[in-house]
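Hi W.,

Here's what went into the run:
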Amino acid sequence: DQQVKQNSPSLSVQEGRISILNCDYTNSMFDYFLWYKKYPAEGPTFLISISSIKDKNEDGRFTVFLNKSAKHLSLHIVPSQPGDSAVYFCAAIGGGSYIPTFGRGTSLIVHP
Amino acid sequence: DAGVIQSPRHEVTEMGQEVTLRCKPISGHDYLFWYRQTMMRGLELLIYFNNNVPIDDSGMPEDRFSAKMPNASFSTLKIQPSEPRDSAVYFCASSLRQGGHYGYTFGSGTRLTVV
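Here's what came out:
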């Protein structure tokens, strides 16, 4: 049973436009959320995180929004660049464990 | 630091053979994790160690899987006997502290194909 769900396996966006990657979770005890980015033939790398005491965290072109009541978070990339093409994993921590639970990932393709 | 180093990068083996995947964590990191990535299940945690001691192996799919960490700089994940459904990318990650909040450092992974 997936506690962290990324329901879109893939997303295609034009360069310069906004990319929105979505993530839903079921465990209300999760209180910290992370996004990882993975290029082909490489391991995932940490991108951005957010604590449940916040509803937004911004780092350059990347912004993560958290809606606790809906158990939903999203990653916005503005503007999208071809180098952003990668698989993005959502992860959540909480419920007495410090080990993240990962989603299945969303493959983002940014077209020039 | 060279980061988390995994070997081999690719492994193709026949069903029934033993497979050993290797990992060298970042020096000074006291947590080590083994993950498996598949299309169906995404990134699954198999097992993790703290100070070379296995803490949680509940993610290990079957008794055919075993993992060891004989010292702070080396860990192995062994599959014996291997089966085609074990085909996946296996990642090792390490962290300082229990660390989910601080992000893990992942290796580049081992792509395992069992034919």
